[in-house]
From TrEMBL:
It comes from Streptomyces coeruleoprunus. This is DUF4190 domain-containing protein. Residues 35-89 form the DUF4190 domain. The keyword Membrane applies. InterPro entries: DUF4190 (IPR025241), Septum_form (IPR026004). Keywords: Membrane, Transmembrane, Transmembrane helix. The chain crosses the membrane at residues 35-60, 72-97. Residues 8-25 have a biased composition (Pro residues). It comes from the Bacteria. Residues 102-219 form the Septum formation-related domain.
Length: 369
């Protein structure tokens, strides 16, 4: 079939056959096939193992048809891709990939949970590499869930003032007082704090004070031995209900005041003991008034009312002890005052309020919520 151009010009003639180059002439080099290169790269980096096989097969077809270079690259890419494909299939079948991914995930979680000791916040639970008690200086800690066994739980922090390094003794003096108070406010249900939990604190070093302007003291409960295993020790406004909060705010001072009894007895120092008895009387009076002013719900109502009556009966003896003018009179009301105190400072009321019922150092299991 002949053809003509639209203008009626004669059809174009076929070109003359190419003239072979003279003997000894340099032949032009063929281009390297791009698919062959892609096959090799894919096989090397194992992006998608079967892809190298597919690219290599296409590359061989085009190389044969167009006379391009790269046959060796395509074959190598296909072999590497085949090996990668077999490895992936084996890994899936044996679960090796799953184990590897679990390992990567564990490493990721380990790195994510490792944080600076300067970043600790109230309520954080953490572990240290060698245990809190064995580390004088700590830069990094591992944050953990409080439900897991842990070395310590942060109860709060505060900043020291001033530009001049005060020295370790002065810092410790301040930290002991403030950290103890923070611990009491953080764990208002003191009966729920295990016996191995001690008040502890991290404070600036002389170097951190000057180089990074570190002024923060971090307070915590730490395990004297072993680990803290009872979950979070936090019991404050963020975790307690209204009844529990009123009860603990009223009763906690009564437990603390008996720990302030003078070391010298009335025969040696009557004034100190009389003054302390007056403080006991006031504390019991305030506790009873606070409990009476609140309407408790459910079964706790009767248990708290019984507790208030016991507190008032004990208070009468301490009132007389606080007015004693001689040691004999003081002793006359001292023991009855102790005997009249409610057993375990309201254990039945605690049970009704779902607070811990194990006194500090006791052996009974708590019934905390």
């Amino acid at each position: 079939m002949s053809s003509s151009s639209p203008q009626g010009w004669p059809p174009p003639q076929q070109p003359y056959p190419p003239v072979p180059p003279p003997p000894g002439a340099v032949h032009p080099s063929a281009n390297t096939n791009g698919l062959a290169i892609a096959s090799l790269v894919t096989g090397l980096v194992c992006l998608v193992p079967p892809l190298g096989l597919i690219l290599g097969a296409f590359a061989l077809g085009r190389i044969k048809k167009k006379g391009e270079r790269g046959k060796g690259l395509a074959v190598a890419g296909m072999i590497l891709s085949l090996i990668s494909t077999l490895l992936v299939a084996t890994g899936i079948a044996t679960g090796a990939f799953s184990k590897a991914l679990d390992g990567v995930r564990e490493v990721k979680e380990e790195v994510a949970s490792s944080s600076s000791a300067f970043a600790l916040r109230k309520g954080d639970c953490f572990n240290t590499p060698n245990g809190v008690q064995n580390e004088e200086e700590v830069e990094r800690v591992k944050s953990v869930k409080c439900a897991q066994p842990h070395d310590a739980e942060v109860t709060g922090s505060f900043k020291l003032t001033g530009d001049t390094w005060p020295g370790v003794p002065e810092i410790e003096k301040i930290a002991e007082e403030r950290c103890f108070a923070m611990g009491e406010a953080y764990a208002m249900d003191a009966w729920a704090v295990p016996d191995n939990a001690w008040t502890f604190y991290y404070h600036p070093t002389k170097e951190s004070w000057s180089t990074i302007k570190d002024r923060t003291v971090t307070c915590a409960f730490v395990a004297e031995k072993g680990k803290l295993t009872t979950g979070s020790l936090r019991s404050d406004e963020t975790t307690l209900d209204a009844d529990q909060l009123v009860f603990l705010k009223a009763l906690n001072p009564t437990e603390s005041v008996f720990g302030e009894e003078p070391e010298e007895d009335p025969d040696t120092n009557l004034d100190a003991n009389v003054k302390w008895a007056g403080k006991v009387e006031k504390t019991l009076r305030d506790a009873g008034a606070a409990l009476e002013a609140h309407t408790f719900s459910g079964p706790s109502q009767k248990a708290v009312a019984d507790l208030v009556r016991d507190l008032d009966e004990a208070r009468k003896h301490w009132t007389k002890a606080a007015k004693a003018t001689d040691a004999d009179t003081f002793w006359e009301h001292y023991e009855p005052g102790y005997d009249a105190l409610p057993a375990d400072f309201g254990k039945e009321a605690r049970a009704a309020l779902k607070l811990d019922t194990t006194p500090p150092g006791g052996t009974e299991s708590g019934s905390g919520s």
